[in-house]
Amino acid sequence: MKRAVSISIGSSKRNKSVVVDLLGEKVQLERIGTDGDMEAAAQLYRQLDGQVDAFGVGGAVLGLLVEGEWHPLRSVAPMVRFVQKTPVVDGTGLKETLERQAANVVDAQLKPAGEQRRAFLISGVDRYGLTCGFLDGGYDSVIGDLMFVLGAPIPLHSKRSLQRVLRLLLPVVGRLPFSWLYPTGEKQEERHPRFENYFQWAHVVAGDCHYITHNMPERMDGKVIVTNTTTPEDRAIFRAAGVRHMVTTTPSYDGRTFGTNLLEAGILAAVGWKKPVDYGHMDGYLDLMKSLVADLDLQPQLQEL
What we know:
Number of strands: 15
CATH topology of the largest domain: Rossmann fold
CATH architecture of the largest domain: 3-Layer(aba) Sandwich
Largest sheet: 6 strands, mixed
Strand order of the largest sheet: 9-8-10-11-12-15
Radius of gyration: 18 Å
Structural class: alpha/beta
Number of helices: 12
Distance between the termini: 35 Å
Oligomer: single chain
């Protein structure tokens, strides 16, 4: 049996292990959280290096891929500094392939029209493929990067504006402690509603599950949530808030949708991938991932809450 492990700086309460069939191979998918402790995560990577078939980076990303250009986050790099043998991925390969399909799934199955084609895209830079799917699909969109990174009530509306902000912010953001940019550990379980007017304006709210649950208002009646990395508790939160539909960009295994990082690692484990993955020099890697996503017939899943 192959084994793929996501070591996450998220809460250990979300730990889970399942065995799934990927491309005819039995693969154990395992998520291990370190409650916000990046050094503990680094030590786990060192202990398991060479003992597992692929690693996922959970609760953080190694960098941001925007229009084919890779922007590393220097504050996250130390987390994987001891890895020498096992390939490491952070989910970028699936964010750029599988997640781009989410808007098409919403269109095909829910057929939104008029004001229902309003999307609040929580973090366009982190989930650029997901964001582009809605922008290219003609949704009236608000992109929340400046709101949730800087706390500035400045909406973005296009790929061009997002790219302009990216060029301005990355020299600074790439060096900030990751915990300043994203909730880690027990902070992922806290609720601090912000920018409620944009949540209420939109019919579709899309982005990282922790970003959504951390910032959303108490009521989200009739909304569509597009996200991943969900647990039964997350679904209960959305249901209690009045969310009508949820689209998860990764499949559900034993009631759990894992992050793109672990699913990507699982796919690499299944095909026996041994080489390091360098998102800055893909050399056909995204084409391979797109092909494997098609072979697995992976697509975002919609469920009514």
